[in-house]
Amino acid sequence: MKQEDPTILNKYGKDPGFKVPENYFEDFNKRMVEMLPDVEITPVDVKPTMWQRIKPLVYMAAMFAGVWCMIQVFSNFTNSGNLDSVRAVAEKLQDDKENVDDFIMSGVSDYDILSYEDSVAMSNEETTSTDEK
Predict the structure, then answer these.
(1) How far apart are CA 86 and CA 80, in angstroms?
(2) Alpha helix (H) ranges present in 19-109?
(3) Are the CB atoms for 90 and 103 separated by under 8 Å?
(4) Three-class SS of residue 26?
(5) pTM
(6) What is the pLDDT of residues 28-70, one digit of tens each?
């Protein structure tokens, strides 16, 4: 805790040195109004431009268009990730090497092909490990 120096208090005392005049805040509003210059305020009639009126509607339409685009993109991701249809197409085309381009162009991504190949390799490993036992 801070200790007070008694010599400073004895020398200067506790008087802050600032005093507010009597009734200063009671008639402060009156004096302030008297000091202000008299200025007439004329109302300005500003008409908004066409862009200022339709701007909120344009922004809202852009927001809804963005939400719609995001829904379309994300719904396409979920539809293309269906591995059952990928497996069915891959089993049909597995022996037919001429139709590889059709397989790739049928809406199947490279990721789906790789994940299918990995699952086939894993199932082959499981079959060979069970045969060895």
Answers:
(1) 9
(2) 28-35, 50-80, 83-93, 100-104
(3) yes
(4) coil
(5) 0.30
(6) 888 888 888 888 888 888 899 999 999 999 999 999 999 999 9
Q: 43 exposed, middle or buried (CB, 10 Å; 0-12, 13-18, 19+)?
A: exposed
Distance CA 130, CA 124 (A): 10
CA distances, 7 to each of 4, 10, 16, 18 (Å): 9, 5, 17, 22
- Determine the number of helices (DSSP H) and then strands (DSSP E) in the chain: 6, 0
In the structure encoding, which two tokens stand for residue 41, read together?
């305020």
CA dist., res. 79 & res. 71, Å (int): 12
Q: Rounded CA gap, 82 and 77, in Å?
A: 9
* Tokens matching residue 125: 């490993």
- Residue in this structure with the two tokens 């994300």, named with its chain if needed: 74
